[in-house]
Structure formats: C-alpha cells, structure tokens
Amino acid sequence: MSRLCWLLLLTVNLLAAPAWAGAESAEVNLDYVAQRAYERAQKPFHSPRADLPKVLQQDNLDYDKYREIRFRRDRALWSADNLPFRVEFFHPGYLYQEPVQVHEFTLTHTQPIRFVQDFFDYGKLNIAKQIPAKTGYAGFRILYPLNRTNQFDELGAFLGASYFRLLGQDQHYGQSARGLALDCGEGDRPEEFPIFTDWWLGKPNADDTELRLYAILDSVSCVGAYEFLIRPGETTVCDVDAVLYLRTTNMIQAVNPSRKAIATIGLAPLTSMFWFGKNTEHKPDDYRTEVHDSDGLLVHMGNGEVFWRPLDNPPVMRHQVFHAPDIRGFGLLQRERDFSAYQDMFNLYQLTPSVWIEPHGNWGDGDLHLVELSTSYEGLDNIVAFWDPKIKPAPLQPFRFGYTMKWTRETDLKISYNKVVATRIGPDARFSNARQFVIDFDGPNLDAIPEEKPPTAIASCSPNAAIVDNYVVRNTIAGTWRVYLTMQPKSGDHDPVDVRCTLHNGAEIASETWTYQWSPP
Asked: Partner of 105 for a Cys bridge, out of 58, 110, 187, 463, CB 3.0 to 4.6 A?
C-alpha cells in the first residue's frame, strides 16, 4: 500500500488537535512492531484493564449508560482529508475493559491518536471530563464505499480481545476471526484470551484501494506482532502476517502461578454461531427453520482431499481434531444462501460471510481443531475452528506465520465444485436405534452422471457403529444426487460416532468427502 508523506493535521480540525501529538520519525512495518513485541515478551503481562478509569468500569457504566455514548461521525479519522477509508473509534467501558492505544503512520512518521472526549456524544452522561487522554479506545471500525460510490459503509471492526470482523459487498455481519486462540476447547484448563493492545493505522492515499494495519497482541503466555492488509471488494481479502514470542515460564508464573504449558496454539482462529439447521435432530420451538452464521467446516488437506463437516449444536462441548499436515486451506462457510431456509428478515443469515483461510507457504505438521459448544439461543458464538502446529516455538524465539483470509459469499471457494449441499438426519424404523443420514450432493461432474447409472457412495464409520444400509438416487426435483445412509451404533455405547461418505463414479472420486460426528442423545 502506498502512503502519503508526513502531513500534520493541526489545521484540519482544531477540536481534534490534542489527539495528534508526539510525532516520531519512523518506518512502521512488521519488523518495527515485532521489535516492540519482543521487548514486551521479556516482561510479565500487564493487563490494560488495570489502567481503565474507575468511571468506565462495569460497576459504574452499565449497558444502558454505555449505549448513551456515540461516536461523532464527523470526527472520523481521515474524513477531513476526504480519503477512501475512514476510522471511527469505540469508547472504552462496560464490557470493553481493556483499552487499546492507537497510532497513525505514514511513510516516514508515526504519532499517537490520544483519547479525545470531543470525539463522542455522551448524551445525558456527565463523565467526559473524568476520562484522561491516556485512556485509549476500546477498538475501532473501518468505513469504506463498499456497496455504493461516495457512500461509506462499515467494512470491518476490531473490538474486544483479539476479535475482528470484515465484510464484502452486500454482506451482513456473522462470524468473527481472532488473532490467536490459546488452549481453546481444552477440558483440563481454562482458555487464555490474548488481546490486541496497540494499533498502528496506515494513512491511505486518495486513490488507495487497500488499507494496512499493524497491531501488538498480548497475553499471559505470549506476545505477537501482526500485519493486516485489507482489500475490500465483492470478496474482501485480508493478508495477515505475524510474529509470535512465547514468554518464559518465569514470566508466565509471575502473573499466573497455576498456568500450565500451552497445549494448543490456535492459528487463524474463526468463531461462529450454529444454533440449528437441516441436520438438527431436535429443533427448538422457533418459527424459523434454520438459525446459523455458518453451517459447515470446509477443509483442503495437504494430500488434496477436500472434506465438508456440517456443524452441529451438541448436547455437551465437543472437540474434534483432524490431523492436517501441510494444510492448504480451511474455513467456516455458510452454504445455505436461500432466504426461505431462514425466514428471518432482521438477521439476514443468508448474507453472512463465509471465511476461508489459505496459509502462506507450508505450515508443516499440525492439527485442525473444531470446537462445538452447546447453546440454547443464537446470541452465543459456539463454534471455533483453528490450526495448531505440532512443534511449539521455544520461549522468546520468533515464530512466523501468515495467511490470506477471504470474506466471501462463495460456497465452494473454487476447490470443491461437486459438494455437499444439505445434510438431514432422522430415524430408520427398519433398524433398532439406527440413524439415517440423507445427504445431497451437487456439482457439474455429478450432473454429467446419467440417472440410470448412479454414482456409488463409499461410506464408513468408527468401530463403535456399523453402516447397515447405503444407496444413492437422483433427486430430480432439486437436481442433486441423494445418499441415504443408515448408521447403527453399538448397543450401550455412548461415545460419538464418526461417519464418512464420498461419491465415486466408477474408480474416480466424484465429490468432496462428507464427514460427520454424531453424538447419542
């Protein structure tokens, strides 16, 4: 991304002038931020929560009071310069107890953007003068003419811990991404949530179509430096490059003496919501037929195999691990794009983005994790997916990785044209305790197979169950191939059952692999 040479903003907005002070001559890049992360990793973690003014703490600023605070849109960063990107800041307080420090940078300089009360309308609250300038912000949102020329839409937001969300054209917020996930889904220890504590926002040129950001990520166990290059469009693409430094045991135990060694380092973690869908066996009492931000996990393995794992809302937490060396890509997708499947005129689940991760280079040996939590409503993000390297970095040694994210409405990412489009589950009365999976496959290769010579479903399951029936028919109404697969768990066995199915046309694989983990009630 090109950047303007240094321009002081004192004459742009006099009210905002105190926000820009203390300019420093520097070339801000990933090495610049990584050096600061390395220096911080040699000290124990200090939570920004400890620096939050008392007036903003949750005991004093509840939900209703926090809603009184509004950012003044005319004070957005870069709006006075009429640049293609703008930034609005979130006020710290209430749930957002860990303020972040924000800087702006150009090709040659960087300067802090200090907290300014005049950026916000406090409504009936009388607290502005009680908040010092060093407080920082809770996070920020990025605006860009995403859908219509000369009209600024929300492109993304970085808010809370290391969470962020982006949008492509005509998309509606759904799942989130995170900078890092530590020990997510581990049953013997709590999860550690790293947070973005410092940001550098690259000032764009008037004709720029991409935005570059840098951040420091911090937690009890590690510190990281992150670079984000965001290119908005029909599919918004974000390149992420990072350097991690694990803290030494002494540094960790100085803050948390009971902290165990990290079991999983979740790279490129995605977080979504699945309440119920076509495959839900006991649907909630709700007028809608499906409620989810994502309906499946798509994975492109290092050996070329592509598999689709429909998401589920299990009765208890379920943590499934797939050995995935040299992984080529993975993502949480929303394949159901028909409004009639949701009938929700407010949440617009048919427009939520799928998010696809493509590693930069070879990530080596490691595992892909899928964590599914039980939820009884749609307000909880209960799905997490991430990749965990087998070899963990040594303390204070740089661990570098990168990946490309695609925030898209695509359903196959051009790697899986012959795909699973629906999964349904119900009883099969012919067999005691059996469950019947009804799986629809669709795609150009499958469409070319004549109805009188149907493909073969190659199916298998884990040893605690058996496949007792399996046949394929042409669904002429939907234009798909439908597999009827009956699985019978062993009597008295209460462990989950893994099931797999792939369509073959003669000796050739004709579809992606459908895989599912079924849990007994």
From this structure: 110
